[in-house]
């Protein structure tokens, strides 16, 4: 990893923390759709940071998730359940942003937050290693 990629990876981890804080603020304000969006982006920025550690980047969300599966899940750095967690967060974000469904509630948003926090805990450990 070159210096530019290292700085970008560190910046993505910072964005991840910021998005988590924003999600918590939105959740307290009962903006569950906005909170889920921010929790997804928190995990997504961490995915991007971890991919940069391996010199990998993708242009799309699904491309990043694919590369993450290849680089971190298939190699068992992260457990298989991580794939379901990230996929669920991605789908909830898409549904909230583009779907015509009922508004998510506090329970759904809190579940998304827990999934995000669990993923970030492990992601930060890998990032620092």
Topology of helices and strands:
Blueprint: H1 3-28, H2 32-53, H3 61-73, H4 81-98, H5 106-128
Helix pairs in contact: 1-2, 1-5, 2-3, 2-4, 2-5, 3-4, 4-5
Structural description of this entry:
This protein has 129 residues and is an all-alpha fold. The protein has one domain: Nucleotidyltransferases  domain 2 (Four Helix Bundle (Hemerythrin (Met), subunit A)). It is built from five helices and no strands. It has helices at residues 3-28, 32-53, 61-73, 81-98, 106-128. α1 runs antiparallel to α5 (106-128) and α4 (81-98) packs across α5 (106-128). The chain is globular. 35% of the residues are buried. The model has no long low-confidence stretch (mean pLDDT 94).
Question: Which shape, going by the Cα principal axes?
Answer: globular
CATH classification, class level: Mainly Alpha
Secondary-structure element sequence? HHHHH
Helix content: over 70%
CATH architecture field = Up-down Bundle
Q: Find the structural class using helix and strand composition.
A: mainly alpha
Report the biggest beta sheet as strand number plus sense, adding barrel if it closes.
Answer: none
- What is the C-alpha radius of gyration, as a whole number of Å? 14 Å
Would you count the extended β strands for me? 0
Q: Looking at CATH, which topology would you report?
A: Four Helix Bundle (Hemerythrin (Met), subunit A)
Contiguous helical run count:
5
- CATH homology group: Nucleotidyltransferases  domain 2
Give descriptors for this structure:
5 helices; Four Helix Bundle (Hemerythrin (Met), subunit A); mainly alpha
């Amino acid at each position: 990893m070159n210096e530019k990629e290292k700085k970008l990876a560190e910046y993505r981890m910072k964005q991840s923390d910021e998005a988590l804080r924003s999600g918590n603020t939105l959740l307290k304000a009962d903006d569950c759709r906005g909170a889920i969006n921010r929790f997804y982006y928190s995990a997504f920025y961490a995915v991007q940071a971890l991919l940069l550690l391996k010199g990998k980047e993708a242009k799309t969300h699904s491309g990043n998730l694919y590369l993450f599966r290849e680089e971190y899940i298939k190699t068992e750095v992260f457990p298989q359940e991580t794939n379901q967690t990230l996929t669920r967060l991605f789908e909830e974000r898409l549904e909230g942003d583009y779907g015509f469904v009922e508004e998510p509630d506090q329970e759904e948003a809190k579940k998304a937050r827990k999934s995000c926090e669990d993923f970030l805990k492990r992601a930060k450990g890998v990032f620092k290693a």
